[in-house]
Structures are given as structure tokens and as C-alpha cells.
Amino acid sequence: VFCEVTVTGQRLSGGPGAAIVIEDRSRDEETEQMRRDFVANVSHELRTPLTALMGFIETLRGPARNDPNARDRFLDIMEREAGRMNRLIGDLLSLSRVEQDERRRPVETIDIAALLRGVVTAQTGSADMAGVEIEQVGTQRQVMVPGDPDQLLQVFHNLIENAVKYGASGGLVTVALERLEHEPVMRGAAWTVTVADKGEGIDPRHLPRLTERFYRVDTHRSREQGGTGLGLAIVKHIVSRHRGRLRIESEKGQGSRFIVMLPESVGRL
Ligand code: ADP
């Protein structure tokens, strides 16, 4: 615990004296440290593609000036690096918007089954390219839940994209929507969406930190796959704004399950 002790010269009521103010500043200190780490991480994440871009610009001006093959290859890499910066900035903006909204409960009601069908359709192209089939269970109906459509779309887009990216070796991703009549944690009826893959899974020691900003199990692989390391942090904040729960289960070699639980009725939000 970090305590700050301030001795003031203030008069205590009823007579002269000194007051000692003891404040528990450990939380402030922790928040400040987290903010510093975040700024350092963002700077580092932005500098990596920027350094690559600057290097290629120099090469294109110099040694590769008259080599059309090298120029095309370098321009492709530069486009990829610029895309990475663009995604990172997009995710940073999403994160800051979600954090601002976190105390405001969503006012709309959406059909979560239709939303899931849409996300799956949108990801079919990249899943095909990765050799992954996306199977749906329980999504062929109408299921209304209180929620922000753009934010929930982002949650399931991120989870399904990760399942396709990191679980590709398993060849199958399942997106299942189920109703739980009495969910003790949610104190009532809830809907769960499970995004499961049969990939290599995640070592249990990483699970508690997976939703931290910029935490990756394998940084190189995440970067190669175009990841920003912010996807699950965004998911966690959005689910929390919806008064829901995110549970992550995984076994090395067996695959992973990301379970989002959402309360059924607006009254309990
Ligand atoms: P990223 O942009 O790196 O994908 P995320 O926040 O979405 O960032 O995920 C954090 C890390 O969690 C990933 O880098 C990856 O190591 C791990 N991860 C996420 N989803 C899965 C999954 N379905 N299977 C295995 N690892 C995963």
C-alpha cells in the first residue's frame, strides 16, 4: 500500500494544533502507472510501423530508385504498415469511446441472432481463405436483448476474427447462441454467445491477462496477423457496459471458448 502522509499546519477545531492527513494513494498511483504504461505502449506500437515506413521511403529514394520490382514489393509492405497504423488508431478511438460510454447503459434493443448471422456472413471470406468453416447454432430465430448494435457487432466481430485467425489449425469455429433460464451470476435469465475454436489453445497462465491492452501471447504472431493487441480489451469494456460477463476457457491443444453472457431484460441493466 502506498500512503501519503501530509502534515498540515491547520488549526484543529477547538484549539491550536497540527493535523495529520493519511490518505491511501495506492489506487491513484496504480492508475497513474497504468496511464504511463499505456502511453509508452501506444508510442511503441505506432513507432514500429512508422520506422518501417521511413526505412522503405529512404530505400526507394536511394538503392531501389530504378528497380521496378523492388519498388512494387516495398510499396506493398508500406501499404501493409500504413494499414496497421490505421487499425491501431481505429482501435484506440473505439477504446476511448467505449470507456466514455461505460457508465451509460445502452438504450436500444437489438436482435442478437440477426447480428451474429451478419457477423458470420461478413467473415466467411477470410474464414474460407484460412480454411476454416464457421458453424452456427441457435442463431436462426429472433432474439431481442438490450444492447448497442455497433458495439455488440464489434464484440462478435473481434471474437470471431480471433477464432478464425488463431484457431485456424482446428478448421472449425462454432458460434452458439443459448438462453439460460436462471443464471446465478446474472441473477436471472441471460443469453450466452459462445465463440469456440479447435485451434492450439492458450496456456492457462495467459488467461487472466488476455483482456489487458496490448497483451498478446505471441507478439510476433499477432503483428503478422495484423492484430493490434486491443481487440479483447475493447470486448471486455463493451461487455461490462452491457452489464454482461466475459468468460474465457482454453486448453492447450484443444482450442478456446470465449463466452459472452448478456442479461435478457433491460430492467436489470
Ligand atoms: P490481437 O490484435 O493481438 O489479436 P486481442 O486483444 O484480440 O489482440 O487478443 C489478444 C491475444 O489473445 C492475441 O494476441 C492472441 O495471442 C490471444 N488470442 C485471442 N483469441 C485467441 C484464440 N481464439 N485462440 C488463441 N489465442 C487467442
From TrEMBL:
<keyword id="KW-1003">Cell membrane</keyword>
<keyword id="KW-0418">Kinase</keyword>
<dbReference type="GO" id="GO:0000155">
    <property type="term" value="F:phosphorelay sensor kinase activity"/>
</dbReference>
<keyword id="KW-0597">Phosphoprotein</keyword>
<dbReference type="GO" id="GO:0004721">
    <property type="term" value="F:phosphoprotein phosphatase activity"/>
</dbReference>
<feature type="domain" description="Histidine kinase">
    <location>
        <begin position="41"/>
        <end position="266"/>
    </location>
</feature>
<keyword id="KW-0547">Nucleotide-binding</keyword>
<keyword id="KW-0472">Membrane</keyword>
<keyword id="KW-0067">ATP-binding</keyword>
<dbReference type="GO" id="GO:0005524">
    <property type="term" value="F:ATP binding"/>
</dbReference>
<protein>
    <recommendedName>
        <fullName>histidine kinase</fullName>
        <ecNumber>2.7.13.3</ecNumber>
    </recommendedName>
</protein>
<keyword id="KW-0902">Two-component regulatory system</keyword>
<dbReference type="GO" id="GO:0005886">
    <property type="term" value="C:plasma membrane"/>
</dbReference>
<dbReference type="GO" id="GO:0016036">
    <property type="term" value="P:cellular response to phosphate starvation"/>
</dbReference>
<keyword id="KW-0808">Transferase</keyword>
